[in-house]
Structures are given as C-alpha cells and as structure tokens.
Amino acid sequence: MSAFEYTSVMSSIIVGLALVDILISLNRLIRAGGGVRWHWAAPATALLIFLTVIQIWWSIYRPQAAPMTIGQFLPFVVELVLLFLLAAAALPDDVPPGGLDLKLYYQNNSPYLWSLFAAALGWMLFVEILGSALMGQPVLAVIEGHLVDLLVVGLFVALVFVRRLWVHAIALAFFYVGPLGWLSRSLG
Hints:
This protein has 188 residues and is mostly helical. It has one domain (3-182). The chain is 74% helix and 2% strand. It is built from 8 helices and 2 strands, in the order H-E-H-H-E-H-H-H-H-H. It has helices at 3-31, 41-60, 70-89, 102-134, 139-144, 147-161, 165-175, 177-182; strands spanning 36-37, 100-101. The protein has a two-stranded parallel sheet with strand order 1-2. The longest helix is centred in the middle third of the chain and has 33 residues, at 102-134.
C-alpha cells in the first residue's frame, strides 16, 4: 500500500466522522419536531461546513509516488482535526427537554465556529507558505497568490467578534460563492 493510500484512508475516516456528526445532529433536530425553534443561521452555517469538509476531502486526492514521512503527514492531520471540530460544532448534539432555540445556539456558538474556520484555513495557508518557502519559492509571491484566502481568514476572524446577524448573512452569502465554484472540479 502506498503512502497516498494510507493517508487517503485515514483522511476519509476523519472526514466521514465529521460529516456523520453533522448528519446525526440534523437528524436529532428534525426528530425533535416542535421542540426546536428554527433559525436560518445555524443550518446555513452547517451546510457551509458540510460543503467545506467535502471540498477539503475532494482536494486531498493527489496520488504521488514519493514516500511520505509522518512529519509530512502531521500538519495534514492537524487540518483534519480542525475540520472535525468545526463539523462537530456545526449543530447542537441534542435537544434538551425544554426545547432548543437555534438562533440562540448560533449566537452563543458562532465565535467558536468562526474561530475554527479561521484556524483551519489559517493553518492550511501557513503550511503551504512554509512548505513553499522551504522549497525556495519567494514567500511574498506565494502570499500574493493567496490574497483571497487571507481576506477570507480576515472575514472569519471578524465574524468571531461581530454579533449582528445581518452581517453574518452577507458573509455567508459571500462564502457560498466558493462551493459554487467547486462544483466543476474533478478528480485527477
């Protein structure tokens, strides 16, 4: 078995667990029926997280003949852990007997969610910039190639502190442009 096969299996397991966590939480919310007071922000953010996890898994597919060390794989594991934590926080794990208000859940949970989003994308950028620098590429050129990603990290960080839901709605609409662009990507 090649290094790619080992890493893709482990990645698929972690990604699968992340997606299952979102789906189980969604199932519990739906089954709770009237015990849940629905609000757009939590499910819209959960869908964005779901799509992001799928996109990251899709982008993992990079067969390579070169062996990979554990040291090369560990930064990737950190990314997968951050994505799992993000997915696990997307929706509440259960509905308390007194019911659940998803607007309140989102308002209380959004700083954590957007911090994880910022950490995940920030970590990915850091690893790529560091890797490029170690391979002798000019760091500023690599950073210039990721200006949109850096803007997105900035927006994630801003959402940690901004409490107005209309700002979150505009940001989510902007963030959904990414998944729409991913729809045409293919493996290989």
